[in-house]
Amino acid sequence: MKRFLLVSILALTCGTMSIAQNKGAVDVKMLNDIRSTFTLDASSRAIQNAITNSESIRELSLNHEKIGKTDHFFKYRVDVKGITNQESSGRCWMFTSMNTIRPDVMKKFNLNSFDFSHNYNYFWDLFEKSNLFLENVMATADRKMDDREVVLYFKGPVDDGGVWNSFFNVAKKYGVVPTEVMPETEASNKTREITSLINEKLRGEGYKLRNMIARKASVKEVRLAKVEVLKSIYRMLALSLGEPPVNFTWRFKDVDGKISESKLYTPKEFLAEINPDFAKTELVMIMNDPTRDYYKVYEIKNYRNVSEGINWTYLNLPNDQIKQFAMASIKNNEAMYASCDVGKQHNRKAGVMDLNTYDYESLMGVEFDMDKKARILTRQSGSSHAMALIGVDVDENEKPVKWEFENSWGATSGNNGYITFTDEWFSEYMFRVVINKNYLDDKAKAALNTSPILLPVWDYMF
C-alpha cells in the first residue's frame, strides 16, 4: 500500500512538473497563429529574394535618404594632423590616449608629423596585466574554481582591451618613446596569436599557484614561483615584440628642415620632457550611463593593468552636461579621449554615424525600440571603441549639431581617417570622455570629490 502511494505521489508530481514545463511550449494552435501573420506577397517576396541573395543585410538596409545629408565641416576643431593605424589589434584605447597628446609634441618640437611607439607601451601593458592576473589568482586561491570572480580572471587573463586609465598607468610607470625607437612588429599589429599563447601559459601557471597555496606552500615560495612565470612572459613578449629600451637617443628634423642634436633619454625622461605634468594629471573620466544615478562617482574593481595603478573610475553625468564640457575643450584646442558603440548605425564608407543610417525596421517590417538604458542592461549596447574627440559644429544658437572623431583605423577609413557623427547619435551611443576637470562646472566638480561607489569586476557595463 505504501509503495502504491509513493508511486502515485511520484506520478502526480511528475505530471505536475510536465504540465509546468510545457506551459510555455509552442503548440500547434500557437504556431498556426504565428504562421498566419506572414504572407509571402509580392513585396515580401522581393525583400526575401534580396536578403537571401545578398552578402549583407546591413547594406540592404542603408537608408538612401541619409546619404549625403551630413557634411564634414566644423566650426570648432582641434588642430590635429596625421592618422594612425592600430591594424588588427584591440589597442584603440592606447592609440587614442596618445593621439590626444601628439599635437602637443609636434608643436613643441615644430614637427610636421610625430607618433609614439605603441609597441613599447603594449609590451608593458601585457606584462603588467600578466602580473595582475597572477596577483588576482593568489588573492582568490581560497575560493572554488567556479566562483564568479575566479571564473572571470581565468576566462581572460590578458587581452588588448583597456581604457584611458590603462594608458595612464603604464605610461606613468614606464614612460613613452617615439615610434622609431621601438617599431611595430607583425605580432603587435596582429595580436591574437601572442595573447592566445600568453593566456595559455598564464592559465596553466595560475592553476599551479592555486595548488601551491592549497598545499600550504610558504608565501616566499609562491612569490618566487610568480617571478618565474613573469620571466617566461617577458621572454615571450621580447621574442614577439622586441625588447623595450632602457634608454635611447633621439633626434628629429623640424618643419624648417633643421636637424636637432641627438639627445639621450630614458622613456620616463622623454615623457617628462613632452608632458611635465603627466603624473599629476588634471584629466578625469566623465560618462553617460543612464542605468545609474547621475552626479555620482563609480569605480570598477580591479579594472586596471598595473597592480599599483588606478582603477577605471568615472563621474556619471547627463549627456547635455558632457556635451557642454566637451565643446569647451574643443574650443580651447584640446582633444579628448572618448569611447562609444562604434558599430551602431555607422556608414564606414562615408565616415558618418547617424540615427537610422540603416533602416532595418523598413527592411524587416519589425520595430526596434529600445532606449539607451534598455540597450545597456540587456547587453545590446556598450562602449566598443575609443577615438579622439576633436570637432564640433553648431547652429546659429551655438547648439551642437554634429561632432568629429579622429580614428585609428588608417587614413583610408571613413572620411580620410575621421568620422563625423550627429548630435543625436552622440546622445544614444557615446559613453565616455576624458577631459580636464577645469572644464567642469561647480556641481560636477563637487560630485567629483565624493567617495566612489565600487562596482564588481563582472559589472554589466564593462
TrEMBL record:
Keywords attached to this entry: Aminopeptidase, Hydrolase, Protease, Signal, Thiol protease
GO process annotations (BP): homocysteine catabolic process; proteolysis; response to toxic substance
Molecular function terms from GO: cysteine-type aminopeptidase activity
Signal peptide coordinates: 1-20
PROSITE patterns for this protein: THIOL_PROTEASE_CYS, THIOL_PROTEASE_HIS
A Gene Ontology term for the protein's cellular component: cytoplasm
Active site: C92, H385, N407
Entries under InterPro entries matching the protein: Papain-like_cys_pep_sf (IPR038765), Pept_cys_AS (IPR000169), Pept_his_AS (IPR025660), Peptidase_C1B (IPR004134)
Record-stated family: Belongs to the peptidase C1 family.
Protein name as it appears in the record: Aminopeptidase
Organism encoding this protein: Labilibaculum filiforme
